[in-house]
Amino acid sequence: MKIVVAPDSFKESLTAMEAATQIEAGILAAMPTAKVVKLPAADGGEGTTQTLVDATGGRFIEITACDPLGRPNQAKFALLGDGKTAVVEMAEASGLHLVAPEQRNPLNTCSFGTGELIKAALDCGIDTLLLGLGGSATNDGGAGMVKALGAKLLDADGNHISSGGAALAALSSIDLSGIDKRLQQIDIQVACDVDNPLCGATGASAIFGPQKGATEAMVQQLDSALAHFGRCIEQQLNIDVINNAGAGAAGGMGAGAIAFLKATLRPGVDLVLDAIALDSYLADADLVITGEGRLDAQSVHGKTPIGVAKRAKQFNLPVIAIAGSLKEDAKVLSEHGLDAMFACVPAPMSFELVKLGAAENLKQTATNVIRVWSLAQKLEFN
Fold it and tell me: Has the keyword Secreted been applied to this entry (predicted)?
């Protein structure tokens, strides 16, 4: 019996690897002869890089990079186990958590540090770059990032435009002659789970600007600046980013990744599941177990258990999910590939107690799942 175990993290309780380890222990307690393949997974959100490092035997590399306000900051990226794939999370150098609430102003914050991380990753001789968006403090369309990679963004007088989202309004010409040539030699994929356009009522500034410190007046200024930025890109690079779904992700970084990195925007869960080569392990599997902290109707929108289930169903495999809790509306997930769902929290309790007992409760639930599974197999064959 080969069982593939591919859970996400259980937020604030267990990392994806820790969850996979406990599920494995529970399986083996009930079925010692089972062959268990642990593949910690993620959906592109918080903890994705750690999960990929754990799943592939990779490592972190730390550098000094600019934070959103241009201050030196220790930031890291990951080199995965193949030695040729790097993972950069935008939030590491350009994250909102790096800026105190009273200092948050997307007119000024800049993504330069993300470009520095990408450059450091290129120095490792990679052939694939996975870029995670989200959690950014910036609204500069990736302008800071591309400047760190050697591009020139110039005003009408031929001077470099300043940093920040507001400065995009002064852009007159884009000079990519000095951009790092190694970018053309690698595959760049961006984990992007939003389809917001660059501008307008559902664009980067209107939807994400306020959480980064933008007032209503700032939102209008930023939206106008991004629209100008988009027009410059279309006129000079012949790339339409204004109408591209996902271009508004992370303060317009989606647009910058498309225009300057020639990147492909992909759902985060698909990017991760490809990176851990899930399909190759499913081909001869008998059962798949996945899970995360909570399952509800929103899980269909790019969450790990549904992503895993979709892949498993391509191989006609049964899929069981274990979660910390199941909301009542989670029953709809049975229509999206989950054949059975189990909650592992045994009784009403505080979240502090949930965290303390998370490992043991997950292990015990996995044991019970396998006992039921084994019983079902016997009944079926008899």
Answer: no
